[in-house]
Every structure is written in structure tokens, then in C-alpha cells.
Design goal:
This protein is an alpha+beta fold. Helices cover about 20% and strands about 35% of the residues. It starts with 12 loop residues before the first strand and ends with a strand.
């Protein structure tokens, strides 16, 4: 089990995750949609919007969006499964803690995430099985260096039709 508690930085990357896609900041106009999330304009960092059919789908897609920003997922081969269990005070706190744990797989262990299966989720806890691939410079290209997941402008909400989150990343 991984634990949270990373420190925040002055710069932020805001990610609002929707069920669409993402392009690098240099290639976006006001906002850019990819297959499952949207990159929103932000002056210094990265912000995304993600949507899901339910809370589990939202957290799965938010984690996959994070690694879609970091690398090209089609080049990853799932070689190791890691269980990640995280708690939070509410859905927004849970999202930040969860994404920080996933980011730590990369920054602390050089593991890139290929797949995510949400095993259990509530408003204050999430448990996921994460398929990872160890970073190999000859095989993996790093697209963005994400330093941190922040609380700045974090939003996780449940609408009548789906769940939606907006997240800011420090780059």
C-alpha cells in the first residue's frame, strides 16, 4: 500500500478530466479534447477535466489521464500489478491523494501506469489494482514532467448523469 502526504509546489498543473482527450500545452488553443479527458487552458501549469459514468469510472479515467500526460500509453506493457489504497476526507481530497499515489509510482519508483482497475471506492476511500511498466529510456518517451497534484481549484462533483473532476498539476 502506498501512502500520501506529498508537499505542494508554487506552480500548479490543473487537470480537469472529462471523457475526452488531451494534447500537450504547446498544441492547444483554449481547450483540447482527447479520447477520455480535456486539457483546459492554464497560464503556468496543466489543468484537466475528466468525466465518468460513476465514481469508479471517474477515478480510473483520472489516473489514466495523468499517465497519458506523462507518456505514450500505447508503448507500455503491463508487467507488474500493484495495489494502491488511499483515503481522503471527501471525494476531492480522495482524488488528490489517489493521483499523488499514482504519480509517486512514477517519481519514486520509475513505474508508468498502463491499466487501472478500481476494486473498491467510496467517498473517502479507494482501492485500485494498477498495471505498471518500469521506465526504459529506449522504449518510453516522457512528454511532461508533472511535479505534483495540487488542491488548487480541485473539484469533484456528481451530476444527475455522471461524475466530473477538475484537477490542476504542477509542471
Amino acid at each position: 500500500m502506498l501512502t500520501g502526504g506529498r508537499s505542494m509546489f508554487k506552480g500548479y498543473l490543473l487537470i480537469s478530466i472529462t471523457l475526452q482527450g488531451v494534447n500537450p500545452p504547446s498544441q492547444r488553443a483554449r481547450s483540447t479534447m482527447r479520447h477520455f479527458y480535456t486539457i483546459l487552458d492554464h497560464t503556468a501549469d496543466m489543468r484537466i477535466r475528466v468525466s465518468g459514468t460513476d465514481q469508479a469510472d471517474l477515478f480510473k479515467k483520472a489516473g489514466l489521464a495523468l499517465f497519458d500526460l506523462i507518456t505514450k500509453p500505447e508503448r507500455l506493457k503491463p508487467r507488474e500489478i500493484i495495489e494502491v489504497a488511499v483515503t481522503g476526507d471527501d471525494p476531492a481530497d480522495l482524488m488528490v491523494n489517489y493521483l499523488r499515489e499514482l504519480l509517486y509510482l512514477w517519481t519514486g519508483n520509475e513505474k508508468l501506469v498502463k491499466r487501472i482497475e478500481i476494486v473498491h471506492i467510496s467517498n473517502t476511500a479507494v482501492c485500485a489494482r494498477v498495471s505498471t511498466d518500469r521506465y526504459q529510456p529506449d522504449r518510453h518517451e516522457i512528454l511532461h514532467e508533472i511535479k505534483a497534484v495540487t488542491y488548487h481549484q480541485i473539484d469533484v462533483s456528481h451530476t444527475t448523469d455522471d461524475w466530473e473532476a477538475t484537477v490542476l498539476f504542477d509542471v
